[in-house]
Design goal:
Elements: E1 4-6, E2 22-23, E3 35-40, E4 50-51, E5 57-58, E6 65-70, E7 72-74, E8 79-82, E9 91-94, E10 100-107, E11 116-125, E12 128-129, E13 148-153, H1 160-173, E14 178-184, H2 189-198, E15 202-205, H3 218-233, E16 239-244, H4 254-261, E17 265-271, H5 275-285, E18 291-293, H6 300-310, H7 323-334
Parallel strand pairs: 1-6, 6-10, 13-16, 13-17, 14-15, 14-16, 17-18
Antiparallel strand pairs: 2-11, 3-6, 3-11, 4-5, 7-8, 8-10, 9-10, 9-11, 11-12
Helix pairs in contact: 1-2, 1-7, 5-6
Length: 337
């Protein structure tokens, strides 16, 4: 009997509480967020670990069945792909460790190999097919009215999540009740869990809105995110820390999110890969930020160059000695509860 692994894409659903059934579905009905079953193919290399529905990571073996969701990925530094490119051979991969599935279309040469799969079918329910959006609760009659500290980046892997963790910790030290969320990007639960570990009182991500990644049309992203922002607004939080994965210029709807948050954003932290990337994002995005972090602030020379090129302050948040200054800046922007 095949071993069945439920990826973290399934954590919002009840698929583990009922017998797993699947079957073929016509391609014209395929969509991002469909729950699907893939069989792990033999390989002679190690692949990116699979993140399970409880947050644990594992190394699937050939023949294991993985339950994940169709989606798209457009990572600038790692891999791109989409379920729409799955061919007649039904070959696909886990585009993310969280279980987003699709055909690989390109991959950077030095990134880890992705888990190879064979598409077996769509997950069946008694009333039809299982899709992520079917498990999203009706949003409350609330709006997000609290101050927002926004994390954006010049690219993926620029230090946004780490900077967000430090911001969560410092806002908590000011007495705030913090709701933290990653609202664009490609689904991996570990980033959101790390906000909880840093002290956030409530956490969310776009998977809670029924999306495996946010590479979707803006007209699809907006209503899903409106409902999730309402759920964030229904918490007891006094401040929100919101990460926009990747950069606001990539096809993850980061720019759409910033537009939706509007003037609730009281402080913007830019995690940048290098000082020149700071200038590039400011020029291309056309918006200013309040603080630069990430590798662009790792040395005195980098901090000086950021200030010379952009006029912006930068803090090396890997240095705990800088956390007090961040706390002061956040207090000036968001106040105390």
């Amino acid at each position: 009997m095949n071993n069945v692994l439920f990826s973290s894409m399934t954590r919002i659903a009840d698929l583990q509480q009922q017998p797993l059934r699947w079957g073929p579905l016509g391609r014209e009905q395929w969509a991002a967020g469909d729950y699907v079953v893939g069989r792990v193919l033999p390989r002679n290399y190690s692949a990116v670990p699979l993140e399970l529905a409880d947050g644990r990571r594992c190394a699937p073996m050939a023949g294991d069945l993985v339950v994940g969701a169709f989606g798209r990925r457009a990572a600038t530094l790692e891999a791109t792909g989409t379920f729409e490119e799955i061919g007649a051979d039904r070959r696909m991969v886990c585009l993310t460790g969280g279980g987003t599935m699709g055909a690989l279309t390109s991959q950077a040469p030095f990134t880890p190999s992705l888990l190879p799969l064979e598409y077996l079918g769509h997950v069946r329910r008694d009333d039809g097919w299982a899709r992520m959006r079917d498990y999203v609760p009706e949003p409350p009659a609330s709006t997000l009215e609290i101050p927002v500290v926004l994390l954006v980046g010049t690219s993926m892997s620029a230090g946004k999540t780490y900077s967000g963790r430090v911001a969560v910790r410092q806002l908590g030290a000011l007495g705030h009740t913090v709701v933290a969320a990653k609202l664009t990007g490609a689904g991996r639960w570990r980033d959101t869990l790390s906000f909880h570990d840093a002290g956030a009182d409530a956490t969310f991500d776009f998977v809670d809105a029924g999306m495996p990644t946010t590479v979707v049309p803006a007209e699809e992203y907006r209503p899903a995110m409106k409902g999730l922002l309402a759920r964030m607004g229904a918490t007891d939080a006094t401040v929100a820390v919101v990460e926009a994965g990747a950069s606001p210029l990539e096809p993850y709807n980061g720019g759409t999110l910033v537009e939706m948050l509007g003037d609730r954003v009281v402080y913007t932290i830019l995690a940048a890969s290098d000082p020149y990337a700071v200038v590039g994002i400011l020029h291309a995005w056309g918006k200013t930020v309040d603080l630069v972090t990430g590798p662009s602030a790792n040395t005195e020379a980098a901090v000086a160059l950021v200030r010379e090129l952009s006029g912006l302050p930068a803090l090396d948040l890997l240095d705990v000695g800088a956390h007090g200054e961040l706390r002061e800046r956040l207090e000036a922007a968001a106040g105390r509860p």
